[in-house]
Amino acid sequence: MKMESTSKQLLYNVKKIVGVYQLIGILLLFYLQGNYITIFNVKNLYNEVLSMGVRGSKKVNFGLRSLPKIS
Q1: What percent of the chain has pLDDT over 70?
Q2: Number of H helices and number of E strands within the chain?
Q3: Is the pTM of this model over 0.70?
Q4: Which sequence spans correspond to the domains of the chain?
């Protein structure tokens, strides 16, 4: 039992880290294309990605459920 919960926790942590790097990668892609993103647009993108994770879609799981919503 202990081993199973540890592996689930590890998988969750890996998903969370990968999700953060995916978000950084998306932002870097926009930056490299020359579309300079304002703080407002970053906030909207972050909240949109966060809401996609919260909706519980199995296909789009960024692992950002535990991150706070920017107001």
Answers
A1: 52
A2: 2, 0
A3: no
A4: 2-54
